[in-house]
């Protein structure tokens, strides 16, 4: 018994080492496959933006371009009013994000701290808004905008404030929902201590609560900004003339017959670059924000 | 004069009193904080939804849009026209509904399974973990209005990356049409899975990390294998985050408009004409707003019904 034990033990170790190695290799290969899937379209976008027009769509595409050229990055500005699209998008999406975060986190604070009648009802409404097919409310909003223009002669279509109002409000339920989770994580004892020290409720919010939820605000803000930047349905109806955002404007690289792929990918890359830099710089905060927030329910 | 200034002083005092009361009274303060979002949402969510439902009972079209209040009330006629499977609109509607369901199921399963796989793989110790997490987040952080065009370029049938990769490893011997015809649904689902799985991966990854390691060690001592550990420890721990993620994925794909719109442009091929696209075309090309609203109300009801049933089934005990 005691003599057989060591060999059996060794045999087990051998088998385990081998099976562990196989498992390790398989899981690494799988991971590499998933990473490749995630990265390929981004890589292809960048690489295509650096190619000559004739090289972009070819029977035998090279993964690594033989000739690198920056002409697309120069000529894209002349083809369409790209600068305007960028500026419009940045104005609309960032202002909408800031307002949505501010108003939304105050609402979230109310929902998190006070259990009053209708608290659950409000929560239900907020989740309910996520089920509205936006196409259902498009025409009524169009008519409301029309009435505002007729009654108080304030144009709403094709204006910054109209788009900002729309996108702020579209993202509000999401801001409230995300921030609700962060607000719950602020210890109430801290606020009570500040109240005893003579702070009123507004001061408590400003000096105690808001500094503590900055990571949450950043993560939610990134989310909301992406939603606003990616919006196409409302923008295609309500922002067609002077305030056309990037999401709609980029379509102008395709005409009836052809698509200017090189220039389109150059414009796409330059729109994505700031966000990629943000991801690279703040990745720890972004991942923490994504995973610690209200989405966890 | 003195009287007037006294009056003004009184009024401002009153205002101030109301102001302090709003701040001191807990409940009123909460209402004060909730008022702005609810007020803003009134004109984008609450009123328009009711309004849209009303329009679905009226014959509103391009001719009478400006005087839509005088449009004839047609009762259930719009609904009968849309939901009668023997009519032409009905047939198109049900085929769009079927495409929506295929699209949603494909997106949910694909994103969820790939997301969990990515989360489990990320949860191991290896070098370059930080970089791997960044790469996984790429599809989520890059705006879809730019990446979907990149996908479109890759899906080009003659000289696109995907067909040439598939043919170079010998899976296909002639080019597949991805952006027109029956395969376009696969293209759409692939793109949506690519877009959504990072979020699933990150949320599941976070909940995997919160599982105490001693649980696995204890299970190992009790003789549990790989499958047993996954089935009885990992799965129960990611249950609650999974249920939220699946609900989000369902809603995001049921009422998704951007993905097919960007990937296929304004004239999408028949197989990817999901309900949102179909309703958009119906409302803004044919200008039959009454019919379009009746279709949207159906989609809204479907999303609501799903959510209610889903909440009862999966989260019933927790709430």
Structural write-up:
- The complex is a heterodimer of chains A (297) and B (319).
- Chain A contains 14 helices and no strands.
- With 297 residues, chain A is mainly α.
- Chain A has a domain of 174 residues: Orthogonal Bundle (MetI-like fold).
- In chain A, helix 4 runs parallel beside helix 7, helix 5 packs across helix 7 and helix 8 runs antiparallel to helix 9.
- The N and C termini of chain A lie far apart (56 Å).
- Chain B is mainly alpha-helical.
- Chain B folds into two domains: 44 residues; 231 residues, Orthogonal Bundle (MetI-like fold), CATH 1.10.3720.
- Chain B is 74% helix and 0% strand.
- Chains A and B meet through helix 1, helix 4, helix 5, helix 6 and helix 7 of A and helix 2, helix 4, helix 5, helix 6 and helix 8 of B.
CATH architecture of the largest domain in chain B: Orthogonal Bundle
Would you tell me the overall average pLDDT of chain A? 86
Shape of chain A: flat
Q: Predict the CATH topology of the domain at 80-253 in chain A.
A: MetI-like fold
The CATH architecture of the domain at 80-253 in chain A can be named as: Orthogonal Bundle
At the fourth CATH level, what is the homologous superfamily of the largest domain in chain B? MetI-like
The top level CATH class name of the largest domain in chain B: Mainly Alpha
Query: How many whole angstroms does the radius of gyration of chain B measure?
Result: 27 Å
Number of beta strands of chain A: 0
Strand content of chain B: under 5%
Low-pLDDT sequence parts of chain B? none
Total discrete domains of chain B? 2
Quaternary organisation: heterodimer
What is the H-and-E element order of chain B? HHHHHHHHHHHHHH
Range of helix content of chain B: over 70%
Summarize the structure.
Chain A is mainly α and about 300 residues long. Chain A has 14 helices and no strands. The N and C termini of chain A lie far apart (about 55 Å).
